[in-house]
Design goal:
- By secondary structure, the protein is α/β, with parallel strands linked by helices.
- It is about 35% helix and about 25% strand.
- The chain contains 8 helices and 10 strands.
- The strands form 2 sheets. It has a 6-stranded mixed β-sheet, with helices on both faces. Strands 2-1-4-5 form a 4-stranded antiparallel β-sheet, with helices on one face.
- The mean pLDDT is about 95.
- The structure holds adenosine-5'-diphosphate and magnesium ion (MG).
- The site of adenosine-5'-diphosphate has 12 residues, from strand 2 and helix 1.
Length: about 240
Amino acid sequence: MMDPLAIDIEGLVVIRGKNLVIPDLTVTVPRGSVTGLLGPSGCGKTTLIRSIAGIQRLQSGRVHVLGGPAGTTAARERVGYVTQNSSVYPDLTVLQNLRYFAALAGTSEAATREALANVGLEGKADALTADLSGGQRTRVSLAAALLMDPELLLLDEPTVGLDPVLRRDLWHLFAALAAGGRTLLVSSHVMDEAGRCDRVLLMREGRLIADSSPDELRHRTGQTDLEQAFLTLAERSAA
Ligand SMILES: Nc1ncnc2c1ncn2[C@@H]1O[C@H](COP(=O)(O)OP(=O)(O)O)[C@@H](O)[C@H]1O
Ligand SMILES: [Mg+2]
């Protein structure tokens, strides 16, 4: 039987340098959903995502993805990770980059064009990747990850610095991917993005202060604005 959980973390502790970045974190994420990982800069979003991708050294705890331990060869083939810093080749054009990843994934030219269109970069196909803006490079990385068609897609702040129209289009794409059975974990430090997610994990100082739907979050805090809801929960968790 297929494990219904995309992510299953228990008692995760991560120390980076001298910092206890994640003191003790337990969470599960179901398949076929868009889960937002929201919290201010420095709260540990990237560290948590690295742990799920299986590239972070853990102090203790257990991280399972798609029914098995994170970071194994088997897991890595099924998990896509788009880092905050673009992981595509600057000296290739956008299309050359995607064709390279398409060759690795064994996908067609049509799929390559579709990935390009999905991230709104058709007009930049022949541009040198080095000449793109940061947001555009992130989208090339995202398209490359889409070509690998991972079951679990980890996106670290993919919408930072994008114009609102493009941001909305990307969130629609995430929802469509989830409707097709993929699982997406999308981090952001912009609270209004929480409203676009099926579920929201609110993180503060390495701890989860909420794990619920946006509506539950509003209900529990009595706030309609999600930024205000976060502040209310932050105050409660500090008290
Ligand atoms: N390589 C590192 N060595 C020591 N501390 C680190 C390292 N990387 C991150 N940190 C610390 O871990 C905390 C969480 O960082 P990070 O996971 O990048 O947060 P976020 O992605 O939410 O901005 C921060 O306090 C940061 O200073
Ligand atoms: Mg980060």
